[in-house]
Amino acid sequence: MLRYQTLPVTAFAQNCSLVWCDATHKAAVIDPGGELDRIIGAAQALNVSLEQIWLTHAHIDHAGGTGELARRLDLPIIGPHPGDQFW
Q1: Is the separation of the CB atoms in 64 and 34 below 8 Å?
Q2: Which of 8, 28, 56, 84 is the Cys-Cys partner for 52 at CB 3.0 to 4.6 Å?
Q3: Contact criterion met (CB below 8 Å) for 63 and 80
């Protein structure tokens, strides 16, 4: 079964989410706008393994932490929509 947890992050209180399979404990982080240590800590507390980053769109409040998180954890980035790639 697919599970999720929403984490409001940054001063924008933007909704970042963790989604994971409860059988495999493999997870994706959606829209990591910032507060990466908090996001990583939430994944650790849930005992899930971050496998991918998913971006719904490229606004800074949703994508601001993406590059650093991808580098730190060697994660692939899925998205955003091709029309947002220029951001």
Answers
A1: yes
A2: 28
A3: yes
For the sheet with 26-30, list strands across it: 2-9, 14-21, 26-30, 49-54, 77-78
Q: Tell me, what amino acid is at 3?
A: R
| Tokens, residue 53 | 């980053």
Strand bridging mode 77-78 / 26-30: unpaired
Measured in residues, the chain has a length of 87
70 φψ region: left (φ > 0), alpha (ψ -120 to 50), beta (else) = alpha
d(CA 29, CA 78): 10
pLDDT at 61 over 80: no
Count CB atoms within 10 A of the CB of residue 81: 10
